[in-house]
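REQUEST ID: PR-0412
SUBMITTED BY: lab tech R.K.
PRIORITY: routine
TASK: structure prediction, single protein chain
INPUT:
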Amino acid sequence: MPIVGHKRLLEITDKLLQCAGASSDESEIIARHVIGANLAGHDSHGIIQIPTYIDRVKRGHIIPGAPFDIVQETPSTTVADGHWGFGYVVSEHVMRMTIEKAKTQGAAAATVYRQSHVGRVADYPLMAAKEGLIGLMTADSGRTAKAVAPFGGREPRLGTNPICVAVPSNLDGPLFIDMATSAVAAGKVELAKARGVDIPEGWVVD
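STATUS: complete
OUTPUT:
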């Protein structure tokens, strides 16, 4: 198996995304998050996702360069419309806004609608934790087809609906939990398929 350094992976990801229509700013942000997931040991949310994003661009499910609008805003809240742009770009921008509001107001909240896959959810609450704040983020499946059967059910009705909480600590790093509310993150199933390995019993309903 070939070994590719992370700097080279960043370059490859950046070029692939720009060829698909992403701007240099968009591709830099996405590549940083995606390869960061690989480096954190979460290959399910790493470079393996890039072909899916390119396919979604072709289908019109992701719109490169989509405008980013603040629909409603108060000193402590934000409602943003991502216009189906890259989720990484929109979520990172909104989290930075929310962090700054929390610093002055004590607490802040934001919601984003019409955006695409945001990748590893932990990336965003960890931004807050690095600033000495508690970060919380939840997500739904957006335009992606529902993939989760309710408990006891046999047909998909729900998204994987991940949630992450990150808090500062006096340890070597922040304390955080990042999890799907399904039996497993969808990316873990995709990764197992790509590697040709079996998945544990209980991950899927057949």
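NOTES: Helices lie at 6-19, 24-39, 50-59, 87-105, 123-129, 186-195.
REVIEWED BY: pending
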